[in-house]
Design brief:
With about 400 residues, the protein is of the alpha/beta class. It contains eleven helices and 17 strands. It has helices at about 40-45, 55-65, 75-90, 100-120, 140-145, 170-175, 200-210, 280-295, 295-320, 340-350, 375-390, and strands at about 20-25, 30, 35-40, 95-100, 125-130, 160-165, 180-185, 185-190, 195, 215-220, 240-245, 255-260, 325-330, 330-335, 355, 355-360, 360-365. β1 and β2 form a beta hairpin. The two termini are about 40 Å apart.
Length: about 400
């Protein structure tokens, strides 16, 4: 018999602490007992401006009073505005809006296979990477290189060839006549914030050009300013053919996007769709988010805060004989070496700090992009205390 708890009606799909969060402001969350928590998870890099952003709440209220959903069978002005903003700030020509990053990645896979059917003799295989993460639909789980997914929900969608990350020779060896695309995250977030090396990126771009393959960048976590550039591909001076966005695109509301260059945008009527996709309530928020984040002064402060956080984490690592700091901008990770990162996360929670441990020896930092230096220092003070306690 199920234990009688306030949470009994919620399917247990994650190990959650017995907390009920009731309200938030900026970098802070408050539970139903008014305990406060400094949030360095922010919905897994979702809350671009922190909790209860005035920009987002006011934008939602204005649009809710005008039009919420006109059906995907029609255009609406916020949809058009947001698509124009994204293409203006990127190398892409067209946008399809979705509700989640997994759905955007599923769309990218469908688009690549459609392109392969039309332009590459039915090629359908996509090279992806060990420890990569692209979502939780059956197809995006099949594309992911997460070990825990390997035996779940079989049979999953075939056609994904997984190779080691940052290994261009392995990519080259995996290419055959049925290969249509290479799909990767510029920084593997769930793997522990592992950036793609410059030389690896340049090598796979050459391989894609040589073998007429599409290059798909999954920027669900890295996009919309998280790394200090509006999109992470800009660090490499490489132009992908397809890109996906999610998480920070909506600043907390559910929206994602599939972007493509016109020459690979081959969907025909009926190939793709979705009841809520491109609805004006979500696209007006996303447009406001991108317009704010794309301002040079905003991107500059992301880099300044990111550099400061990285420097302070490096000092902390030296003080406690920990490992390297990985990542860019405000997506960083600390290698805890032999220390158990989930245990550190739990002790931090007990001390009012929310952190994430994507691996047993890794802490991930994903604060709001407008976090203050004082809040970074507060986080470091708590983590320093916890690491002393864990010694």
């Amino acid at each position: 018999m199920m234990k009688h708890t306030p949470f009994r009606s919620i399917m247990p799909i994650a190990k959650r602490p017995d907390l009920i969060f009731e309200h938030g402001s900026g970098s802070w969350l408050y539970d139903d007992k008014e305990n406060k928590y400094l949030d360095f998870i922010q919905g897994w890099a979702v809350n671009t401006f922190g909790h209860s952003s005035r920009l987002i709440s006011e934008t939602l209220c204005r649009q809710a009073g005008k039009l919420i959903n006109a059906s995907p069978a029609f255009y609406n002005q916020p949809m058009i505005d947001c698509a124009n903003t994204l293409t203006r700030h990127s190398v892409f020509d067209q946008v399809f809006f979705t509700n989640s990053g997994a759905e955007a990645n599923e769309g990218a896979i469908k688009l690549a296979r459609k392109w392969g059917a039309k332009h590459k003799n039915g090629a359908y295989k996509i090279i992806t990477f060990e420890n990569g993460f692209h979502g939780r639909t059956l197809t995006t789980m099949a594309a992911s290189g997460k070990a825990a997914f390997s035996d779940l929900f079989e049979p999953k969608t075939p056609g994904f060839i997984k190779v080691p990350f940052n290994n261009a020779k392995a990519v080259e060896a995996a290419i055959d006549s049925q290969t249509v695309a290479i799909m990767l995250e510029p920084i593997q977030g769930e793997a522990g914030v592992i950036p793609a090396a410059d030389e690896f990126m340049y090598a796979i771009k050459e391989l894609a050009s040589k073998h007429a393959l599409l290059l798909i960048f999954d920027e669900v976590q890295t996009g919309v300013g998280r790394t200090g550039e509006l999109f992470a591909y800009q660090f490499y001076a490489i132009e992908p053919d397809i890109m996906t966005l999610g998480k920070g695109l909506g600043g907390g509301v559910p929206i994602a996007a599939l972007l493509a260059k016109s020459e690979v945008s081959v969907f025909e009527y009926g190939d793709q769709g979705g009841t809520y996709n491109g609805n004006p309530l979500m696209t007006t928020v996303a447009n406001a988010v991108v317009n704010e984040v794309s301002k040079p002064v905003f991107l500059k402060q992301i880099n300044e805060k990111g550099n400061y956080l990285k420097q302070q984490l490096e000092q902390l690592s030296r003080a406690f004989s920990l490992g390297e700091i990985r990542g860019k901008g405000l997506l960083l990770a600390l290698n805890t070496k032999s220390r158990n990162a989930p245990n550190i996360v739990q002790t931090c929670l007990d001390n009012g700090l929310l952190l994430n441990a994507p691996r047993e020896n890794c802490l991930r930092f994903m604060p709001a992009l407008n976090i203050s230096r004082q809040e970074i220092d507060q986080m470091l003070d708590i983590l320093n205390k916890v690491l002393k306690h864990e010694t």
